[in-house]
Every structure is written in structure tokens, then in C-alpha cells.
Amino acid sequence: MSALEWFAHKSLGGGIFWIQERFYESGNRANIWLVRGSQRDVVIDTGLGLRSLPDYLRLAGLLGPGAPEEKGAESAPPAGEPLAGQRPLLAVATHVHFDHAGGLHQFPEVAVHSAEAPALRRGDNYEAVTWLSDGEVVRQPSPGWSARHFRVRPVQPTHVLQEGDVISLGDRELTVMHMPGHSRGSICLHDSERKILFSGDVVYDGSMIDWLPYSRINDYVASCQRLIELANRGLVEKVLPGHFNTFGAERLSHLASNYISNAGICHKVSTCAMRSVASLALRATNSRSTS
Questions:
Q1: How far are the Cα atoms of 34, 43, 180, 193 from residue 19, in angstroms, in the given order?
Q2: Fewer C-beta neighbours within 10 Å, C or N terminus of the chain?
Q3: Residue 31 lies in a domain
Q4: What angle do CA 281, 130, 4 make, to 5 degrees?
Q5: Could you tell me which residues are beta bridge partners of residue 13?
Q6: Is 161 within the bounds of a domain?
Q7: Please, are residues 10 and 17 in contact by the beta-carbon 8 Å criterion?
Q8: 28 near 86, Cβ under 8 Å?
Q9: What angle do CA 188, 28, 291 make, to 5 degrees?
Q10: Residue 291 maps to a domain
Q11: What is the mean pLDDT of each run of 10 residues along the chain (291 residues)?
């Protein structure tokens, strides 16, 4: 299967494109965001990496000068044809979980928060929470492919991010906000001029997951308090999350407030039990995949 078949995209306007893996039918299917700038383009999260995301971006006409806001595969340049004047392309991982970081190895420039850079370097599929089933991938990306052998590959990050770092695209800037809780290196990227927040898995319009091996409820509460402050101060008008649909400031505040209100003793006890089960399952899964 070609990259053009595997992915699909939609323009949100303003140089932002929403990309998904068409044949990964799972609640874990991550949103991939392409943000085009005047001097640099940024891909925020990269999906599973089962087909080449850079090839898709090129063949779908989403890179290079003057790429249109709406352009499909039918108007792609011929395979192998270079794009004149293509800007540097940086892949940023909001965190290293498999559904977001599986395709990082396809990019020459990769950025991740310092807390998860060691896990990315060693290809730590326990921290990457790598669990994928054949049933979730409804069309084989290549002949003989099996989820049993899927791994997040080791990647040497070229950019190690910290709180407050600014990624400049020329005509726009994305500020790194370290928001641990879901994972220890989770980040959001904030375009303060346009009041857009790329939130990764820190917040999305669904049940927020805090029972994974490196999840921490107290950290998550603090991150949610920061999200509420962003909404209350009018610094965010649109959230582009790691999963599901986009939403606005009012929904952002509601989701964050709801998490805080439910993060009591009973929640912490049940989460601790779930984390233990998840850790055992992950260790068993990764043991089988390497045997």
C-alpha cells in the first residue's frame, strides 16, 4: 500500500493540516498536525509509522512553496519528483507513546521533551506503551505485516525541548509547555498570536488517561490548572488535540476542571490498581514481541 493510500488530510486554514492514518481504526488513532511556516514546517506527532509520512506530505503537495490550502492526492506531483524550495521540516513529538511517535524515525529532524528523550533514544517500548493488535489495522500496510512485530524504533532526537522553548517557523512561533500527567514528557505547543493550542494527549474531548506506567495524577492536576488559566485569560480559542475532534476554550476549561474535580482518593486508588495491570500487560506484550 502506498503512502498516498494510507493517509488522508484536511485543511483547517491558516497553514494547518489535519492528517490521519485511514486504516488504523482505533480509539488510539492519533491526530497528526502539519503547521506550515514561512521558513520552517512542523509536523506535530507522526502516527504509527507504518507507511512514510514524509512521502505522503510531499506527494500530496503539502510541502514546498505555495502549497494550496486544499490539495488531494489527485493533484500530487509524480512520485520521486523533488519540490523546489522545500523548507526544513521538523517532527515534534508531544510525547513518545507509540501512536504518536511511531513515525519519528522517518524524519531527519526530531524534537521531544527532555524527560522522554532517553526513552526515545533507546526505543523503550514499555514507556512508549506499545500495544497494537492486528484487528485495529484493517488493511495491511505491507505484505505479511503483523502487529506482533510492531515496535517504536530508537531515534536520536536532534532537538531536546524544555518548558518555554520557542520553535520558530518564521512567521509564527510555537511555545513549548511541559504538561506532565498523561506521561512524564507530555507537552503542548502554544501559538499565542493565533490563540491555538496543540494539546497532544494532555487534553482531548474524551476520557483522559492517567493510569499508564509513567502517568502521575498530581502532575495531571497541575497541568489541568494551567489549562484552565490559559482558557480564563483568553489565551486559547482553539484546541487541536492528539485524538478526536477540535474544540474551543469553554470545552477546554470544562474538561480540565472535570478532571481536577474527579481526582480524589477513590480515583487515585483505582488508578493505582489499573496502572499495575497495565504495567504487567505491557511487559508481557513487549516480551512476546521481542521473542
A1: 8, 10, 25, 23
A2: C
A3: yes
A4: 145
A5: 16
A6: yes
A7: yes
A8: no
A9: 110
A10: no
A11: 95 97 96 97 98 97 69 40 70 98 98 98 97 95 93 98 98 98 98 98 96 96 98 98 98 98 83 83 70 48
**Gap between the Cα atoms of 112 and 95, Å rounded:** 7
Residue where the block lists cell 483505582: 270
| Closest residue by Cα to residue 177 from 167, 186, 193, 188 | 188
How many CB atoms neighbour CB 2 within 10 A? Answer: 14
Report d(CA 158, CA 23) in Å as an integer. Answer: 30
Neighbours of 81 (CB within 10 A): 10
In a domain, 290, yes or no: no
Q: Quote the pTM value.
A: 0.91
| Interatomic CA distance for residues 121 and 242, integer angstroms | 22
C-alpha distance across the termini of the chain, in Å: 27
Q: At 108, which amino acid appears?
A: P
215 near 275, Cβ under 8 Å? yes
CATH of the domain at 151: 3.60.15.10
Residue pair 110/93 in contact by the 8 Å Cβ criterion: yes
CA angle 247, 229, 200 (to 5 degrees): 45
100 with 201: CB under 8 angstroms?
A: yes
Contact 94, 198 (CB under 8 A): yes
CB 4: neighbour CB atoms within 10 A?
17
Name the residue range of residue 79's domain.
3-266
